[in-house]
Amino acid sequence: MPLGMTKATHISEHKGHKELxxxxxxxxxxxxxxxxxxxxxxxxxYEICVKVGDEVKIxxxxxxxxxxxxxxxxxxxxxxxxxxxxxxWHPSGKKxxxxxxxxxxxxxxxxxxxxxxxxxxxxxTIRLAGIVGMxxxxxxxxxxxxxxxxxxxxxxxxxxxxxxxxxCDCVSIKHYAKELIQGIxxxxxxxxxxxxxxxxKVCHQDVIxxxxxxxxxxxxxxxxxxxxxxxxxxEKYIVEKVQGKTYKSLPCxxxxxVSNAGTLIAxxxxxxxxxxxxxxxxxxxxxxxxxxxxxxxxxxxLASEIIDKTGGYVDDLGAANLIAGGPMTGNGQFFDSFxxxxxxxGILVFKEIAGKEEACLGCGKCVDNCPVKLSxxxxxxxxxDKDKEKMVKLHADMxxxxxxxxxxxxxxxxxxxxxxxxKKVVRGK
Amino acid sequence: xxxxxxxxxxxxxxxxRADSDSNTKSIMLHFxxxxxxxxxxxxxxxxxxxxxxxVEDKNxxxxxxxxxxxxxxxxxxxxSFLAELVYFVLVKKSKTPVNDALNSYSLIPGxxxxxxxxxxTPVWVLILGCLFGTVIGKLxxxxxxxxxxxxxxxxxxxxxxxxxxVVAAHGGNLNPTEVGTIVSGATPMVAFKADMxxxxxxxxxxxxxxxxxxLGNVPGALGETSAVLCLVAFxxxxxxxxxxxKIPVIYVGGVFVLTYILGAFNGHAAxxxxxxxxxxxxxxxxxxxxxxxxxxxxxxxxxxxxLYAISLAVLTVLFRYKSNFPEGVASSILVMNMLVFIYDNIxxxxxxxxxxWKVALVYLGxxxxxxxxxxxxxxxxxxxxxxxxxxxxxxxxxGVGGLK
Lengths: 429, 404
Ligand code: SF4
Ligand code: SF4
What we know:
The complex is a heterodimer. Chain A is α/β, with parallel strands linked by helices.
């Protein structure tokens, strides 16, 4: 492996868990009675564009985030705003104040304004449709596609989905393959990209077969197969594999821009059907639910209702964990009544395993397997000693909190947590 | 509306490999399994076969003698285990001392000591050794995972230094069959020490062929003679990912290469048996597979582990050819245990060091030290020994003329 490149690891013992949902269809649950959208988050303020009593349609603007890169949120149902400061659980694990909308089940839609099919027009549509990276990170896509300093020629489609259990991308591609290809074409225009590469794991043979069939007469779109490792869906890893070189902070340094498959399907909806992002496919899985399945839901639906729609929890569910997102990087939840955001990839329920932390064996597996080549156990020791100088020397700030070190440790040591804290110490200067 | 349900929140990630396989228990289990063939072999070779073939008067004492290898193993394990049990009861005031003692790999030091001490080590000496290894080598540091030195080797060294006379008086290493056939009464390592660049007839012939060395059919401690069984154990442990395969491979490979070079300069250029003898004897294979890889006392960083293994090879050769210790494996591992901390401190940041020249510089430094150490061994041994004498006597070089 060339110096400076990242690495990834087989976490094969959890490979099979994708099978729980991979070959099933997509269940639709598009008529929730209420939907919720963040009105205020500890880390983010919103400009609220509606007030209690307003009638809204699907696609009406509810909020615009007051972030450095503002993102628009649209209503996902038609109905009436019944509250703007209701306390509801959020996938981040905190309770926040939220806008509540009561569905009138009329499904009236406010369509996006038509834009020309040019680079600028498509980027504007993406912005107006409120599209963000749907793999979990949630970075605004229109900002990602505006990179004045760099010339990009390759669009990389992240269809890797390396988190165990999650299959929402994989199943979406199978169902919406044509839409995906069309979305890719729009994104290529938006980025002046001459070619597109779809990165997909070699183990998803069915997805590969469908895509190969569709790509037969597409000259500029090709497949790139990746081995089944974690974190193969990490942007840096994909770019290195596809481009053969690495970058410091942004993929466009290598002439590439990366988008998640779900994001591209959303772009197609926005450009061809003039629909903003108000729906997404979400994986409900784990040994705590009766029928693990992918569900097409409205953004803002409560997770408890979605779980209920799939058939609910297993009967003998005792103490359990609930996760919003993937099992490696997702957030643990105290209650199942949390709202689904655009970036929520999964709802996972696991029977609790009360594992105990043991003394470090010194096996070095955490060091061997860190994708950014950090030394988690040494950083943890430095953190326990409050030795900031050492944490700096060990580059704790490079951690991307992938969770692999804690996952792999035979002694079950909470390395990810410690390195995450050390990272804050180092960044806090 | 659907009823709300409460969940417990654990630290991310929510799935752990330790919950399915590859946890501390399974690692210990694999380690023990890997040792089983070696224990059986030791018993058959040193207990059963001599009893059947050589011992004429099959009385009670002879039966005890036959069971000797197993007794050593059991006593070793028990002693270490009990020592830790007492520690957990008295010092740690643990409520589940038996469980804790089992979880902290307490059986392993005693087991390993029993496999590397001479066959006729009196049982009370073994008990003292295991106590010393467990208490001084492990518990005074704060127990498992805090120890700096390999506890088994600490115990072994203790027996070697304090009781070598007692052990020799009780019969040392030779089993009853070997006593009858090996005229000189010496183990291969002693023979090697007496004539380091001796011919095949001196070094190998008295014990059979080089194949006997590979199979383990030569005098020596229970565990250390059979290279082939160590190899099998190595494959098992490496496939099960219990040990880092790079450490034994580099260590043993390194000793092979360095021994070959030394031999080549001293009349063994065409003899592959010479370096082969070097790696099949002196407990090198056993030490490389079971001791050098001991995770607590080896570096955590992968690049550190590679340098650690190379260092072990260089030091082992250095000790073998330049010191009074017969084998060099135990002492080099203990010396390197001391440096692990430094190796990790140097190597871990190198993996994320952006400046490539810095990385190259550090590795170059290591390479130079290795070369210098080996050059010292090469130019002061065998054929070149006169050079050493000239150097020491030359006031220009070391200024200690007259020392020799
Ligand atoms: S969580 Fe951080 S330290 Fe741990 S493996 Fe991932 S990047 Fe490395
Ligand atoms: S993986 Fe766990 S046991 Fe192994 S070195 Fe890292 S912290 Fe220690």
